[in-house]
Amino acid sequence: MPNLVIIDGNSLVYRAFFALPDTMKTSKGLITNALYGFTMMLLKIIEESPDHIIVAFDLPAPTFRHKEYKLYKATREKAPDKLIEQFPMLRQIVSSFDIPIFELEGYEADDIIGTIARKAEKEGLKVEILTGDLDALQLVTNLISVVSTKKGITDIIHYDAGLVMERFGIKPCQVADYKGLKGDTSDNIPGVPGIGEKTAVELLKEFGTLENVLANIDKIKKNKVKETLSANKDMAILSKRLATIVQDVPIDIIINKLPKFNPNWDKILPVFENLEFKTLVNRFKGKADKDTLLTTEKKIEMLEHLNLDYKIIDNEKDIKQLVDKLKTCRGFAVDTETTSLNTFEADLLGISICFEENSAYYIKAPKILKEILEDETIPKYGHNIKYDAKVLANHGINLAGITFDTMIAAYLLDPTEQKYNLKFMGKRYLDRDMLTYEEASKDINSEDFGKYACSDADVTFQLKKIFDKSLKEKNLFDLFSKIEMPLVSVLIQMELNGVYVDSNKLNLLSSDLEIKMKRLETDLYVICGCQFNLNSPKQLADVLFNRLKLPIGKRTKTGPSTDATVLEKLAPKFEVARKLLEYRTYSKVKSTYIDVLPTLVNKRTGRIHTSFNQTITATGRLSSSEPNMQNIPLKGDLGRQIRKTFAAQNNDFVILSADYSQIELRVLAHLSCDPELIAAFEAEKDIHRATAAEVYGVAEELVTDDMRGFAKAVNFGIIYGMSEYGLAKQIGVSREEARIFIDKYFSKHTGVKNYIDKLLLKARENGFVTTMMGRRRYLPQIDSLNRNEREFSERIAVNTPIQGSAADIIKAAMIEISSKLTVHNSMTKMTLQVHDELVFEVHKDELEQIKSMVEYSMINTVKLNVPLKVDINIGDSWG
C-alpha cells in the first residue's frame, strides 16, 4: 500500500530547538541546533522508505481561530530569536530533499495536515503524521496514524486508535470534544471551568460527544458538574471549535500527482556542507548519485570510465612475474574470494593483489603465491584481513607481515560508525561505486568477477593511504600499530585454535533444565489457577494484572508490560514473579547456549571457533560472535554448569583461567592519582571493605556485609558514572541517602572527584575523551539541553577512559603472551578472552612455566601507579 508522511514543520523544529544546545553553530556563527535536530528526525523517517513526504508550515498571519477568540494561544511565549533565524535555512533543507511545502494564510499547519490526510485516505493511501503536537490524534483512523516525538529528537511513539484509547481513555474522534470540556493550556483554549481530565473522559464515555453531554446535563449525577456545564455551554462549544482541525482547507493538491520521494543526495549534500553537518556529510557521501548506482551494469560501466588497470592471471608464468614485482614493492593489499563467510567451510576461489593505485591483479591459482604471502618482510594490507588470513591458513598458507587493516583503522577514527564494510568505505572516502559479491558472483569465472575482486584490493590499498595519514593526525597511530594490528595475529591464532566443548554434558544439562522448567510451569499454573502460554506476553499480562490483580509496573503500546524489570520489582513480594524470572532464565540460557553450542562444533576439528570482533564496541573491548562468549553466564550454579562443559580436549591438557582482579578500579586509581585508592591497592586491602570503612567512619573489621555491599555499588557506580538515582535504585535506598553516600565517598576520595570534574571539562572542550593509550570516544551530546542525553554522555565520558584503558591493557597482555608462546614453541593454546579474563588450554608438562609467564605478563606488560593483580585458576574445565 502506498504511504504518505506529513510532517508538522513548526512542531518538529520547535521540539528540535529545545532538545539540542543552541551552542551548535557554524564557523560563520549561524546557530544550527533546530536545523540539525529537524534533519535527524527527517532522516529517521526516510529510513522507513515512504512513497511520498510533504511538510506543512504555519504562517505568521493570524488564523480564523485568533479572529474568533482573541486570547487563542495568547499565553504562548514568542519564539526565541535563535530559532527564528534558522527558519530560512530550514526551508532550504526541506527544498533540497525535493519535499513539497504547504501553507495557507488564515489556517494552521494542523488544518493543512488534516485536509491532506483525509484526501489521501480517500485515495487509499496509508498516512503517517509526524508531529510533536497531540492535537493531530483526532485525525487517527485505520489508515491514518500519528508519530509523535515524546521528548528530544529520537524518542517517538506511534499512535493508532487503540493506543489513543489506551492512553487517554477516548476515541480519536472524541479528542476535540475532550478539549472542549477540559480545555488546552498550551493553546489557551479555556474549556469548562472545573472539568478536568478524569471528568471529561467519564462524560464522553457516557454521552459520546460534547453536544450530547450538553443535551443531557439533567442526567449527570454530580451537581457541581451540572452547574458548571450549564453555565459554560457557549464556552464549551467555542473550545471544541477552536480545538477541531479543519479538514476542508482550500488548498491546491492532487494526491495521485504527488511526486515519488527520491532524495537527490548530490543536491542535499551541499546544504549539509554549508551548515557544517560534517557527520552527516560523511555518512551520506555514499548515497550521492544513488540513481546511477542501481544496476550492476551501471557500476561496471563507471569502473570502465576510471581507466583502471585490472588484470586476471591464470597461468604460472604471469604469476611468477607478479611475484618478482611484489618482492620489490613496499607493501600490497590482499583480498581473498571465497564461497562462504565461514572460514572453515569456504573454498578459495582466488586472490586479488594491489600495490599501485588503480592497478590490481586477480590470481586464480593462489597457492603459487604461498612464498610471497608468507614473507613477513613485505607488509600486507587488508580490509578485515583476519578473515583472509584464516581462509589462507585453512588452505595451507600462513599469511605473514600483516601491518594494516583498513576496517580497524576506520573504526579507530570513528568508533561509533554504524558500519565499516569495504563498499561503504569505498563510496565514503573514494566516491567509488563498487560491485557487491552477490552482483559479481553470478559467474565466478567471468571477467566481471575478476574486476570485482581487483576493485576490492585496489580500494583497500587506496584507503590504507588515507587512513594512515588520518591516524597519525589524530595521534591514533601508536594505538593502531602497537595494539590493534599485533592483536589481529593473536586473534587469528585463537580463532583457529578454537575451544573444546563437551556436547554430551550439554545434552544432559539441557535435559535437566527441561525437567526444571516443566516443574516451574506446573507450579505457576497452580499459583495462577489456570493454564496459559508462559511465553505469550499478552496472556501473561492478562493473568498477572487482570486475574491476580498484581500492580502494573509500566505500560507498552500493546498493554501492561511483563518484562524483566517489571517482574524484578514484583519478585520480593510475589512468588509468581520469582518463578517466572527463574523460568525465563532457564529458557533463555537453554535456547541461547545449551542447545546451540553443540550445533556450532566444527566437524573437522571437533571444536567451536568463535569470532572475536575488534570493531564493535565503542570502548575498545573485544566482542565475539557465533557464539557470543562474552554473554555466557559466569555467575551462579547454572553458569558454573555451563562452564564445566568447556574442557580440555584430552587428558594431557588442563584449563587455566587468568582473570584481572578489579582492573577497572585500579585503572581509576591510576588515572585519578587518588591517594586513598592507591594506598588501599598497595596494601592489598579489600577495596570495597576499605571504602566502606572510610565512608561509614568505622574500623575495617567492623564493616558489615551490607556496608561492604553498598560501598561496592558506589565503587563500581563511580566507574559507570552512576547518578544518585541509579545508586538508590540499585541498593534500595532513597535518593537522599544515595546522595549522602556519594558525597561522603567524594569527600574521602578528592582525587577521584577532581579527576572526574577535569575529565568532563575536557570532554566538553574537545568533544571526545581518550583512554590511556589514546583511543577516542566522541561525545556529540555532551552539551545537550536534553537532560537524559547530556547525562548519558557524561556517564560515557567517565566510563570510557576507564573501561577502554582496561581493554587496551588486556590486549597488550594478550600480544605479549602470544609472542612468548610462539618463541618457546609452546604446546599451550590461548583459546578465549572474556572481558578481563583469558582462558588457556595448557599442556600439563608446561603448567608451572605457563602459569608464571601468564601472571607476569598480565601484571607487567602495562605499568600503573598501583599494582595489577591476576587471579589464576586451574582445572579440568573452565568451571
Please name the defining characteristics of this protein:
879 residues; Nucleotidyltransferase, domain 5; Taq DNA Polymerase, Chain T, domain 4; 4 domains; six-stranded mixed beta sheet; 37 helices
Describe the structure.
This protein has about 900 residues and is an alpha/beta fold. The protein has 4 domains: about 5-265, 5'-nuclease (Rossmann fold, 3-Layer(aba) Sandwich), CATH 3.40.50; about 280-475, Ribonuclease H-like superfamily/Ribonuclease H (Nucleotidyltransferase, domain 5, 2-Layer Sandwich), CATH 3.30.420.10; about 505-600, Up-down Bundle (Taq DNA Polymerase, Chain T, domain 4); about 665-800, DNA polymerase, domain 1, CATH 1.10.150. Helix content is about 50%, strand content about 10%. Strands 3-2-1-4-5-6 form a 6-stranded mixed β-sheet. A 6-stranded mixed β-sheet has the order 7-10-9-8-11-12, sandwiched between helices. A hairpin with a 2-residue loop joins strand 20 and strand 21. Helix 19 packs across helix 22 and helix 31 packs across helix 34 (about 735-750). The relative contact order is 0.06.
